[in-house]
């Protein structure tokens, strides 16, 4: 009897360890976001193309006014350099984004990525963030 109980306990534990890595958001009605996704929220300060993919430079910790009035070089020369991330549309289509747009985006920490100066990663999800300052 102890062997059966031990076997059932081990099976339950093993199956619990293999659970999906998504957050339970059923109560809020939001999309389910995998736990390996990192959320970033900030303002678009630059756009471009790389290898046929669109990309945009998102910076956290600045105001919309700074994003609109300063050049990306001015913003990145200060403390904001560490709060900047290039996001590419490798896996998704971006909404029409312009300089100074407030954005919330997610990227997958589990995907391999290079870290030259500013982190450049494929975006998994991008939403316009309609907030007022």
TrEMBL record:
Keywords carried by this UniProt record: Signal
Span of the signal peptide: 1-18
InterPro entries per UniProt: DUF3221 (IPR021598)
Highest rank taxon of the organism: Bacteria
Pfam families: DUF3221 (PF11518)
Annotated protein name in UniProt: DUF3221 domain-containing protein
Organism taxonomic ancestry: Bacteria, Bacillati, Bacillota, Bacilli, Bacillales
